[in-house]
């Protein structure tokens, strides 16, 4: 017979029965949300480090701006393979916990593969390692974004996902700072710079493998299709349409593709921009400027969380995306510190766009939530498409600042979803019905007066016979 601790951590779950996990209160959802939020920091760090290495490989390997975008192409090109393929299959057949562990394992393997590629200065090999890491992070995003959205009261889903994604922003701040000291400070000593990069990826591998073990032993509530069907029925009177008729989801997927492509292109060529626009001629300083811009990005997310407490998330989304368009225009025409300041502001307003599209796009999907999340996360592959276009444009025009017109065009296309979700009733009414839902909410009087009925003990008794063994 299997030991008790092994039985307790069985990973197989079923989507046919409810676990009541979609009815968790704020207090009950704190631990699983904190654990999953660590994942957001991880891929923020990985993404920020990638932006730093983009410029580093241009310097050390003598490759063009267009070719260096192969890093972003490998990283984000892996996302649809994960979110629409292996990770989504695991999510639908085994659940969130297995997908988290799978993603962390792939991440760790990719980080280990990066070691020999860096030793032999193989750009192609390193792109392959990044592709494996991208599959791992794509798996994590396929599970983590919808989990954060649905784990807890639906009313606060946009706030939850933006708060968790704010720690993604912190990771993107730390990575360029570490890169500026560990990589760019060794000018003329490429061997030392690459050696430091190797140690960074080895540390990442060790950390994510340990985190996979922590996830295995942690009691993470599983949220099934049946839970999501119940939540959709309770929050909205609208009938859930067949998946092929989920036009709002497909529009959100298109917006995510355009927006993510623009965001990745700007960050990936930020150091090129500041060195060519005259803000600095030193790549190490440019890397620190990138850390500052990513700091604005993280700050924008915290500010967005506060605003969403008082203003409907769809309105905050509309204004933030509009400001991205407004401020990237002078970034194309201006130079020096003025142009760089415009990009700082653009990154501030980029902050809430990705997670808010995820939250709004999943509204009303019900039993299709897991499948739908794969489409929205898969749209991150825009990050593999737009940066090469920007890089090729910058090479052709011999100017990265002028090439910023490329992400501007993709921002404008993404803005079509912001308009629809605010002014088209079929979009707006579904979004608002979830923002007003009472699921998972308890007043303080109820908690005090009925502590045994609806408090922690009551919930525990209610779900004892229904919970899925993890």
Automatic annotation (TrEMBL):
Residues 448-470 are annotated as: Disordered. Keywords: Cell membrane, Membrane, Transmembrane, Transmembrane helix. It is found in: Cell inner membrane. The chain crosses the membrane at residues 30-50, 70-91, 98-116, 122-140, 161-184, 199-218, 249-271, 315-333, 339-362, 374-392, 404-424. Its main location: membrane. One of its GO terms (molecular function) is transmembrane transporter activity. Residues 454-470 have a biased composition (Basic and acidic residues). The keyword Methyltransferase does not apply. InterPro entries: MFS, MFS_trans_sf, MFS_TsgA-like. SUPFAM superfamilies: MFS general substrate transporter (SSF103473). It is a multi-pass membrane protein. One of its GO terms (cellular component) is plasma membrane. The keyword Plastid does not apply. Coiled coil: none annotated. This is Major facilitator superfamily (MFS) profile domain-containing protein. It comes from Cryoendolithus antarcticus. The lineage of its organism: Eukaryota, Fungi, Dikarya, Ascomycota, Pezizomycotina.
């Amino acid at each position: 017979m299997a030991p008790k601790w092994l039985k307790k951590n069985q990973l197989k779950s079923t989507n046919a029965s409810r676990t009541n996990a979609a009815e968790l209160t704020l207090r009950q959802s704190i631990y699983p949300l904190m654990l999953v939020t660590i994942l957001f920091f991880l891929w923020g760090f990985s993404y920020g480090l990638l932006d730093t290495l983009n410029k580093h490989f241009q310097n050390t390997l003598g490759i063009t701006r267009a070719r260096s975008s192969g890093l972003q192409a490998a990283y984000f090109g892996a996302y649809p393979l994960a979110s629409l393929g292996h990770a989504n299959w695991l999510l639908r057949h085994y659940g969130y916990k297995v997908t988290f562990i799978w993603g962390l394992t792939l991440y760790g393997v990719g980080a280990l593969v990066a070691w020999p590629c860096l030793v032999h200065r193989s750009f192609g090999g390193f792109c392959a390692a990044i592709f494996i890491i991208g599959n791992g992070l794509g798996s994590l995003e396929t599970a983590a974004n919808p989990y954060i959205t649905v784990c807890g009261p639906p009313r606060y889903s946009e706030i939850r996902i933006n708060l968790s994604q704010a720690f993604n922003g912190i990771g993107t701040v730390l990575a360029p700072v570490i890169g500026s000291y560990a990589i760019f400070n060794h000018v003329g000593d490429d061997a030392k710079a690459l050696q430091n990069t190797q140690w960074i990826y080895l540390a990442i591998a060790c950390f994510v493998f340990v985190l996979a073990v922590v996830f295995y032993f942690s009691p993470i509530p599983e949220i099934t299709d049946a839970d999501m069907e119940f939540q959709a029925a309770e929050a909205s009177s609208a009938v859930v349409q067949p998946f092929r008729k989920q036009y709002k989801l497909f529009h959100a997927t298109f917006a995510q593709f355009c927006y993510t492509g623009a965001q990745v292109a700007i960050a990936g060529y930020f150091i090129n921009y500041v060195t060519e626009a005259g803000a600095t001629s030193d790549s190490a300083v440019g890397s620190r400027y990138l850390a500052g811009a990513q700091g604005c990005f993280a700050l924008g997310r915290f500010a967005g969380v506060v605003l969403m407490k008082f203003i409907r998330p769809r309105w905050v989304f509309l204004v933030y995306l509009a400001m991205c368009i407004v401020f990237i225009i002078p970034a194309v025409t201006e130079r020096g510190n003025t142009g760089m300041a415009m990009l700082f502001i653009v990154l501030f307003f980029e902050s809430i766009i990705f997670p808010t599209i995820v939250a709004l796009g999943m509204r009303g999907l019900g039993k299709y939530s897991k499948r739908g999340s794969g489409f929205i996360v898969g749209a991150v592959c825009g990050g593999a498409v737009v940066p090469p276009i920007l890089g090729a444009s910058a090479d052709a025009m011999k100017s990265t600042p002028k090439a910023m017109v490329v992400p501007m065009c993709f921002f404008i296309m993404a803005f079509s979803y912001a308009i629809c979700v605010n002014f088209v009733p079929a979009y707006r009414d579904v979004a608002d019905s979830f923002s007003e839902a009472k699921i998972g909410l308890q007043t303080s009087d109820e908690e005090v007066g009925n502590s045994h009925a609806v408090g922690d003990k009551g919930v525990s008794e209610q779900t004892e016979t229904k919970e899925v063994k993890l």
